[in-house]
Amino acid sequence: MRALRDSSLEEYASWYLLREAQKTRTATPSAMQRDPIAEMQHHEGKMRSWFDASTMWKIVELENVDEFSNLVFLESDWTREEGLVTNDGANYRLLDRVAENALRGGYLHRPSAHRHREYYERLAAGTLILRGEDRIAICSAECSEIAANPAASFYLLDGAGRCLPYMVLLKEKRLNEIAIEAFLAARQKGQ
User: Fold this and answer.
1) Residue 113 is assigned to a structural domain of this protein
2) Which of these, 9, 27, 102, 157, has the minimum number of CB atoms within 10 Å of its CB?
3) Could you give the number of structural domains in the chain?
4) Could you tell me the residue range of the domain that residue 21 belongs to?
5) pTM (predicted TM-score)
6) Domain-located, residue 171
7) Which among 123, 160, 171 is positioned nearest to 45, based on CA atoms?
8) Angle 87-83-177 from CA coordinates, rounded to 5°
9) Average pLDDT of 116-123?
């Protein structure tokens, strides 16, 4: 992982809120103009309790497949119901394992995967790259996440919908480069 520059919680919050507004085709939320960090409290799962002034924020580039494939993926009702996350042993939530489950189960061909299929097609065509405004966000994984996924150090905070198709394309050998930029929220010692 290569550090590109320093960042901040406020930059992450503003970026996330702007992406959400663009996805829903709404005007830029007025709350962003007031306090984007406070507005983020309404976006469940996108903030960790330890995100504060002592959190180190950077923009980084993931430089190899292992850094990417070992990200801890979201575990939720929908990821379990779709067969993406199956608690069948150590490292069951790693992006690599989730992509294997997606391929094995034909996930991207299901009607429920239409948004991920769109990302898949755009990534394959080169019209979507995971940089700039389309970067992802990662953070230090929690102790419980690492205990169940010992190969991991980081959790995929935002971008699961883009990363899953990217990982599938890597596994299909339709992409062969890692060109991924991410917000990184790293826990400081003692947090």
Assistant:
1) yes
2) 27
3) 1
4) 2-186
5) 0.92
6) yes
7) 160
8) 95
9) 97
